[in-house]
Amino acid sequence: MKKVAVLLGSLRAHSFSRSLVHALGTIAPEPLSLEIVEIGDMPFYNPDLEGDEAPAAWKHFRGRILEADALLFVTPEYNRSVPAVLKNAIDVGSRPYGQSVWQGKPGAVISISPGRLGGFGANHHLRQSLMCLNVVTMATPEAYIADVASCIDEHGAFADAETQAFLLSYLQRFASWVQLNAGAAASSP
Question: I want to staple 181 with a disulfide (CB 3.0 to 4.6 A). Which of 92, 106, 110, 144 is the partner?
Answer without folding.
Answer: 106
